[in-house]
Amino acid sequence: MSESTDTHTPRPDFTLDDAEWRRRLSPEEYQVLRRAGTERPYTGEYTDTTTEGVYRCRGCGAELFRSDSKFESHCGWPSFYTPLAGDAVIERTDTTMGMARTEVLCANCHGHLGHVFSGEGYPTPTDLRYCINSLSMTLDPAED
């Protein structure tokens, strides 16, 4: 996982040992969720998806984002301007890659989701871009 300067992150509610995570997730999902990897831009399943529904953590099933907060950022990954609820994700400082960024984790299992950026000028209510890996989520489509 990335180096964190946050020493106050609560323990996850949903935990598995490393062997079980490896059994449960594909190698690509494991690399993103458990090793803070990043999928290649413009390759993710949900980059261009406009289906209405709830995005859930692929690791534990926790609700993370709603489709109504998803927007087209042209960055190569699904982008949201707010999580489902304030306690759905954890944000912490990530100092890997020679820069300071804000990492986004699932609050339930502490799976790596992506990063959040602010002040980029997108016309959204929050001026935030939660840049999330498709490999870290599943989409639960809304029922018609």
Keywords:
144 residues; mainly beta; Metal Binding Protein, Guanine Nucleotide Exchange Factor, Chain A; six-stranded antiparallel beta sheet
Question: Counting H and I runs of at least 4 residues, what is the number of helices?
Answer: 2
Which series of helices and strands comes N to C?
HHEEEEEEEEE
- The fold-level CATH name is Metal Binding Protein, Guanine Nucleotide Exchange Factor, Chain A
Please summarize the sheet with the most strands. 6 strands, antiparallel
Q: Mean pLDDT, rounded to whole units?
A: 90
- Uncertain runs are 1-7
CATH class, please? Mainly Beta
The CATH H-level superfamily is Peptide methionine sulfoxide reductase
The best one-word shape is globular
Structural class: mainly beta
Helix content: 10-25%
CATH architecture call: Beta Complex
N/C terminus separation: 39 Å
Rounded to an integer in angstroms, the radius of gyration calculated over CA atoms is: 14 Å
Side-by-side strand order of the widest sheet: 3-4-8-7-6-5
Protein topology:
Layout: H1 18-24, H2 27-35, E1 53-57, E2 63-66, E3 70-71, E4 79-80, E5 89-94, E6 101-106, E7 112-118, E8 128-132, E9 137-141
Brief summary:
The protein is mainly β. The protein has one domain: Beta Complex (Metal Binding Protein, Guanine Nucleotide Exchange Factor, Chain A). It has helices at 18-24, 27-35; strands spanning 53-57, 63-66, 70-71, 79-80, 89-94, 101-106, 112-118, 128-132, 137-141.
